[in-house]
Design goal:
By secondary structure, the protein is an alpha+beta fold. A two-stranded antiparallel ribbon has the order 1-2. Strand 1 and strand 2 form a beta hairpin.
């Protein structure tokens, strides 16, 4: 996850000196998009039932996946 303090931001300002937009490197933009997608997935799944690690291992073994 990207730390917002590490972003290489450049601001676009209007004639009054007010920030109106931001420019950042493509790699950082793509990382931010990935973080947003991850957070959206977590939010969508927050009400799903959970499975213990032990139960997951048993299920994977039964399905011959481990």
């Amino acid at each position: 996850m990207i730390n917002t303090k590490d972003l290489a931001l450049n601001y676009v300002t209007n004639e009054a000196g007010e920030k109106t937009a931001v420019i950042l490197p493509i790699a950082q933009f793509e990382e931010l998009l990935e973080d947003i997608e991850d957070l959206a997935t977590v939010a969508e799944r927050r009400n799903e039932p959970t499975t213990s690690h032990a139960d997951l291992l048993v299920e994977l073994e039964q399905d011959d996946l481990i």
